Amino acid sequence: MFAKLKNRQRDRGLAAGLVDRHFVMQDERPVDVRAVEIEALDPFLRGLLFTDGTVTRTLAVQMLAPVAVEPIGQLPVATPAHVAGCLEATLGEESIRRQVSIGVGAPPTPVLWAESYMIPERLPPGFVGLLDSAPDGIGQSLQRFSLESSRELCWFGLGPLPAWAPDRTAAAEAVLSRLYRIVSDGRPAILITEHFAVARRDGAYHLAGLLAHQAARAEERRGA
Description:
Blueprint: H1 2-22, H2 43-50, H3 55-63, E1 67-78, H4 81-87, E2 94-104, E3 109-118, H5 127-130, H6 138-144, E4 149-159, E5 174-184, E6 187-201, E7 204-207, H7 208-223
Antiparallel strand pairs: 1-2, 2-3, 3-6, 4-5, 5-6, 6-7
């Protein structure tokens, strides 16, 4: 029993070290986003949380199903205070707010919702307009422009579904949110909040869309 306790303490230490190393603003998450241990997330969900690559590609590879990015809205807004601080921008400076729903399968089952704030002057000319024709969203647009950039993870936790999500009835038992920013030419240019629909099974949180997809595939095999 003592050995098991030491192993658990070691694992928790490793997990805390990963969070401290990769999430630079974990202690600054909003009050309505509560902490969750990464040990409480299944391996695929942990991978999504820590990835600095394209989420849509990761989803497609894991689920072997089409991934659809459904734009909800994109318009210029006065940059709010919490965004201005993360983007090192002036409060009220104009930014472009983009909101999307990302689903898997046909018809798409919502898997996550994402809200982005972009400072156009820090991005290549035409970048914002290209988003309308990029089916995989911001990640694909960055690749099309061959824009040298890095992603800086800020914080994560369990929080509410965003009020602007149109398909709120499709929400799962809980929502895992993360905030990160894309840095280009030494300055943060895009701030993105992603909200993953999750469900708790066997003591761990799983991506709800993946559970639904696996159940549908199993049903198809039984009916074949």
